[in-house]
Amino acid sequence: MNGVLETGAQQTDDLVVDMVSDLICPWCFVAKRRVEKAAAILKKKVEVHWLPFELNADMPVDGLDRRVYRSAKFGSWEESQRLDAQVAAAGAEVGIAFRHDRMKLTPNTFRGHVLLAAALKDSVEMQGKVAERLFQAYFVNGEDVGDPAVLLGIAREFGVSAISGVEDLDSPELVAEVRATERRVSAGVRGVPQISFGGRVLASGAQHEELLAASIREIQGTSGQCENGVCTV
């Protein structure tokens, strides 16, 4: 696959699922696991094509103290902790050990999306590995995924060919590509994750794997049907 961020399932026996997401969205991490479980139900291999969405587009480039930010956003630290507990419970069901105690910052995620776009230039598989590592970095290890040094380390860990130095995370070409894709995919999106297959939205939110599998079966069953001179996709 080339590096163009296009949506839509590919012509393959594997499942290619598009997911509009942000790196600091815990439900996107949960959704990743549920998509993988849905693929297991369908006895298919799945690759997730990650599309950028910034929940905090105005976040300072160095991020903000997580407790201060979330206390203001949700009205109190106690409410933030209640929401964290909900996420932790859902994560435990799919094998994610969220460590909110390690998460000191709410980072700016734009450069992380640049890294994902760069990884896609190698392959969807490479992008998937980097996405998994970024989620693990933030939600399990408490790393600052807005820090260019952290992102460069991850790029080098997986051999992302388009990122050889921190300056590449600000590459005008990659920045323009991510900005254009953000504008395109954000139309109509009110929250993330938004999960699509074959050009159709499967779920807005981290829907359970049985429902995802059923929706994929339905799309596969109706794809390419022709009736009364009209062929549906």
Fold blueprint:
Elements: E1 15-21, H1 26-42, E2 46-52, E3 64-65, H2 66-74, H3 77-93, E4 105-106, H4 110-122, H5 124-139, H6 148-158, H7 172-186, E5 194-197, E6 200-204, H8 209-222, E7 226-227, E8 230-231
Helix pairs in contact: 1-8, 2-3, 4-5, 4-6, 4-7, 5-6
Task: Describe, in short, the structure shown.
By secondary structure, the chain is an alpha+beta fold.
Q: What key phrases describe this protein's structure?
A:
13% strand, Glutaredoxin, two-stranded antiparallel ribbon, alpha+beta, four-stranded mixed β-sheet, 233 residues, 48% helix, disordered N terminus, disordered C terminus
Strand order of the largest sheet: 2-1-5-6
Order of helices and strands: EHEEHHEHHHHEEHEE
Per CATH, the class reads Alpha Beta
Enumerate the spans where pLDDT stays under 50 for 5 or more consecutive residues: 1-12, 223-233
For the termini, the CA-CA separation is 22 Å
Beta-strand residue fraction? 5-15%
Tally of alpha and pi helices: 8
Tell me the name of the CATH homologous superfamily.
Answer: Glutaredoxin
CATH topology category name: Glutaredoxin
- Class derived from helix and strand content: alpha+beta
CATH architecture: 3-Layer(aba) Sandwich
Mean of pLDDT: 89
- Secondary structure tally: strands: 8
Q: Total domains, how many?
A: 1
Instruction: Characterize the biggest β-sheet.
Output: 4 strands, mixed
Q: What is the rounded Rg?
A: 18 Å
Name the helicity range: 40-55%
| Shape verdict | globular
Would you mind describing this structure in some detail?
With 233 residues, this protein is of the alpha+beta class. The chain has one domain: Glutaredoxin (3-Layer(aba) Sandwich). The chain has helices spanning 26-42, 66-74, 77-93, 110-122, 124-139, 148-158, 172-186, 209-222, and strands at 15-21, 46-52, 64-65, 105-106, 194-197, 200-204, 226-227, 230-231. The strands form three sheets. It has a four-stranded mixed β-sheet. Strands 3-4 form a two-stranded antiparallel sheet. Strands 7-8 form a two-stranded antiparallel sheet. A hairpin with a 2-residue loop joins strand 7 and strand 8. Helix 2 (66-74) crosses helix 3 and helix 4 (110-122) packs antiparallel against helix 5.
